[in-house]
Amino acid sequence: MSGRRGQANLLSLAVALTALVSAATLGLVVADGALAGADREPGERRAAGVAAERLVSAEATTVRENVLDGEAIAGLSAADLDALAPPVADRSVRVRLGGETLLERGDPTGVTVERVVLVAERTTRSRSVAVGDGDTVTLPRRTDRVELTFAAGSTVETVRVNGRVLLHDPGGLAGQFVVEPSRYETATLSFAGGTAQVGIESRPLRTEKATLRVTVDD
Question: What is the model's pLDDT at position 41?
Answer without folding.
Answer: 67
